[in-house]
Amino acid sequence: MKTRFIIAMFCLSGMASPALASDASLMNAIDALSHGWAKVNYQTPKKARAAAFQPLISQANSLLETYPDAPEAMIMDALILSSTAAVEGGVDALIKVRQARELLLHAEKINPQALDGAVYTCMGSLYAKVPGWPISFGDKAKARKYLKKALKIDPGSIDANYFYADFLADQGEYAQAISHLHLVLQTPPRTGREDADSGRRDEATKLLAKINMAHKQEIAAH
Fold it and tell me: Do the Cβ atoms of 194 and 46 come closer than 8 Å?
């Protein structure tokens, strides 16, 4: 039986501009990969996504070979591995999320502020969604800690707010979840990131509707 879990990830919460990066070529490659990710994740039928992510995995691995000490490349590789795992399932998916976590831990040691703290959004998403022990490393307390760190670095992040809202909803903290979802929906799209932000806001809209429909009484009580 396949092990299934969901990581609807795009954890690059605010791409750094090339002018602020140590290497413009690196950031241009990150930019291209992020647009490729958005196309697969939001415009490709779910059954076809695992195969569609494979070329992006190869490109991300090549980027990391070119820039082995760049936390931005590590984060991008982790993102694509995690997203592939989410639609792939099984033992291979568990291997990929462990690889993603190692990349993120390494990136954190080098520069936790890289890509506006995206490492913490990614880590929080992983710990929130992967199975816990003995299957894998999922841990709700760590998920909360990492997602709060992401929001501390970038309080207006569309992605960090979405994933924290998703986590809060999963924990039954619906009123707080709704507050963060409203932030997602009110935040203007980022220039050059309209594809990803549009997809993320669609997810936020659906999650908000789901919470309002299923937990109307609990929300009213608050």
Answer: no
What distance in Å separates the CA atoms of residue 112 and residue 121, rounded to the nearest whole number? 11
| Residue 132 DSSP label | B
At residue 213 the predicted structure's pLDDT band, cuts being 50, 70 and 90, is confident
Give the per-residue pLDDT at 131.
93
Question: Is a pLDDT exceeding 70 seen at residue 67?
Answer: yes
Report the Cα 86 to chain-centroid distance in Å: 11
Q: Is the peptide bond before 55 cis (omega within 30 degrees of 0)?
A: no
Is 177's pLDDT higher than 50?
A: yes
47-82: buried (b, 16+ CB within 10 Å) or exposed (e) per residue? eebbebbeebeebbeebbeebeebbbbbbbbbbbbb
Q: What is the model's pTM?
A: 0.87
Average pLDDT over residues 118-133: 95
**Helix, strand, or coil (residue 207):** helix
User: What is the CATH topology of the domain spanning 18-221?
Assistant: 1.25.40
